[in-house]
Amino acid sequence: MNNFIPYGHQWISEEEIRAVTQVLRGDWLTQGPAVEAFEAAVALAAGARHAVAFSSGTAALHGAYFAAGVGPGDEVLTSPLTFVATANAALYLGGEARFADIDPATGCLDPRKVREALSPRTRVIAPVSYAGYPAPMGEFLSLAREVGALVVEDASHALGGTRDGRPVGAEADLTVFSFHPVKHVTTGEGGMVTTDRDDLAARLRRFRSHGIEKAPEALEGPCEGPWYYEMQDLGYNYRLTDLQCALGLGQMGRLEGFVARRRELAARYDEAFGSVPGVQLPPRHPGHAYHLYPLRVEPAWRRALFEGLRRRELGVQVHYIPVPAHPFYRKRYGLALGSFPQAERFYASEISIPLYPALSDPQQDDVIRRIQEGLREAQADRKRMWLKTGG
Ligand SMILES: *Cc1c(COP(=O)(O)O)cnc(C)c1O
After folding, report:
1. What are the phi and psi torsion angles at 172 (to 5°)?
2. At which residues is N6-(pyridoxal phosphate)lysine found (predicted)?
3. CB of 19 within 8 A of CB of 250?
4. Which are the contacts of 25, defined by CB distance < 8 A and separation ≥ 6?
């Protein structure tokens, strides 16, 4: 299988391995200096005053919705075209997920559809910067202000991206990142929430650690001594370890290079597939972070192409099965097929092809050749079927 090329892959340096080893030889395995250093690096890159590390992107979403005040009866309005965690985290808090359709041009939540779905119960609007395309945050922020909601950007795909020259993470009330190995920067498992607001940052820190508050000035009752702390909220153990943060800190040092390389690879794909009939390229944006390179093809031959590419040892993937179509959500909300026509059509036509900074030019040329072959085969198959059945 050494010819196999996945759709995403981490890139760990020897220096990062040494940094992790150094933590192992030190005094803190968790909650030591590496956590703060990693948080500071992400806050800087995201243009936010605070960054709070979590044990996964999912835990970070849970924390962000908690900080935003989501509870029973509240709704988190999000995109159907996302990983299930974006919606699930609302349910963890006793709230509900609501969906609005996407803009087919970008794959991101459509502000016009959000307006139609807003309700007095909307506590959070949670746009997803799909594939790394920076979703239009200004529009979501003004919609949220109309109903007294907050915006939580799921920027799991968009670390290192920008909009109007400002880093992703600088605009939304709360921004969530993931450090899963296929994402821009990895800690194995890991996540982060950035925010400018001191009160939200304090809630995030408590939530990450059992709801416990230690700062004397933030106690509800009198401080009974130097040992004293209070549990003020029902929190979790969602801490990220120093081992992981040492890795993440090293990775952050290479973020700019990672994003630049992803953009280079995307431009080469644009060039290779731009004039292929029946193939639609991902949208361009000067601040695109390119977590994914989502090609769109005719739904009628997407499956044949997908299988042909897997046969050619390309680890292609589909992002995403619309969240409300999963059995759990179908049973919970009973949304009929056709409720989100744009997201459904996007899903039916999408294939994510290999994109990660360690992919070399010759490897990418090889990927392009395999995809061109696969495209010819899938289209020919389709034509044969069409002739056989008379259309
Ligand atoms: C990866 C991802 C998450 C969850 O992140 P984990 O770190 O795997 O928990 C959430 N939302 C989106 C859109 C993602 O891609």
Report:
1. -65, 160
2. 183
3. yes
4. none
Atom 7 of ligand 1, residue of closest alpha carbon: 57
> Position of tokens 């409300």?
324
The span from the CA of 211 to the CA of 230, in Å, is: 8
Model pTM score: 0.97
Residue 82: CB within 6 Å of ligand 1?
yes
Please indicate whether residue 85, judged by its CB atom, sits closer than 6 Å to ligand 1.
yes
- Which two three-digit tokens encode residue 85? 């965690």
Taking only the tens place, the pLDDT of each residue in 75-125 is 999 999 999 999 999 999 999 999 999 999 999 999 999 999 999 999 999
Task: Please give the domain boundaries of the chain with CATH numbers for all domains.
Answer: 5-252 (3.40.640.10), 255-388 (3.90.1150.10)
For residue 158, give the H/E element and its range. Answer: none
DSSP track, 288-333: ---S-EEEE--HHHHHHHHHHHHHTTEE-B-----GGGSHHHHHHH
Q: Which atom of ligand 1 approaches the CA of 291 most closely?
A: 15
Q: What is the pLDDT of residue 91?
A: 98
Q: How far is the CA of 335 from the centre of ligand 1 (A)?
A: 24
The 3-state DSSP class for residue 372 equals helix
Which mutation among 153, 178, 187, 192 tests ligand 1's pocket best, with the greatest number of atoms within 8 A of CB? Answer: 178
Q: What is the pLDDT of residue 380?
A: 86
Catalytic residues: 183
Cα-based distances in Å from 325 to 20, 92, 187, 297, 335: 41, 19, 31, 21, 8
- Give CA–CA dist 259/166, Å, rounded: 15
CA of 128 from ligand 1 middle (Å) equals: 10
pLDDT in tens, 305-331: 999 999 999 999 999 999 999 999 999
